[in-house]
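Appendix C reproduces, verbatim, an entry submitted by the partner laboratory led by Prof. M.T., so that reviewers can inspect both the input and the predicted structure.
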Amino acid sequence: MTSYPPDNLAGMAKRSTLRRLAAGTTLLGAGTLAYATLVERNLFTLRRFDVPVLAPDAEPLRILHISDLHLTPDQHRKQRWVAELAATDPDLVVVTGDNMAHVDAVPAVVRSFGPLFDRPGAFVFGSNDFRGPTFKNPFSYFRSDRPYKQGVALPAEELRDAFTGAGWVDLDNARVTVKAGGRTVELLGVGDPHVGRDDYPSVAGPADPTADLHVALTHSPEPAVLDKMAADGFDLMLAGHTHGGQVCVPFAGALVTNCGLDRRMAKSLHRWPGTDAWLHVSAGLGTHPTAPIRFACPPEASVLTLIPR
């Protein structure tokens, strides 16, 4: 029987403990990655919020807010889930961009939204409706000065024609009034400010006092744009882009927003600071194809029930 000096026994025990800790950490990391990749990114979730923006005694009005599908032709589960959102019976459908992640994705996007095309709708595009995905170092999102990388050109105009052909309103730097739920709704939108496509001066001006509701859209919730929308008197501002942080820390939230928005507002409904306006940021339904993971931030769409103040 071999005997070891006490110092050797202590060293062996320490090394054994470290090996067990390393093995446990590796297994935990692998399990978390598998869950984030295979499970949570497919846990499509419908959020519901009440937003007090209507006049006293007004009947509720439902807005379905969808964003950031980043759709590829083979994502059939996501397509079916979006199509089934017609069952929420919205008065108005709002889409805040980044619909595509593949040059052949237009038919898949149209199939997804097809059952909703008989409802009033409005949309703005995001940067990933114009250019396809490229590989990005995930840690680069912590750098505000990182260069913007563009991928292959996507058929944005084909998708725009499909949406407008179905009767939805194109709000890329536009302002219109529509009827929805028996109400007059003034809509304003800008091109994606994340890549300098916004032109707020072309749509600026006080909200129409004769409209029952004023709703503003932007893909990226840049504070400079949101400040202008709120100052013009828009009751509700809708955005996407952030993916809610995509990979979050449980009970702490998003680590980054990929824009100038405070991390605490990376998703959900918030009162815009210093104003009467509300901001809803959708965590979106997709992921960047080179980083197909979500953690503590499942993919989502939202039904916003507007109620009296």
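The radius of gyration is 23 Å. Additional entries are available on request from the coordinating office.
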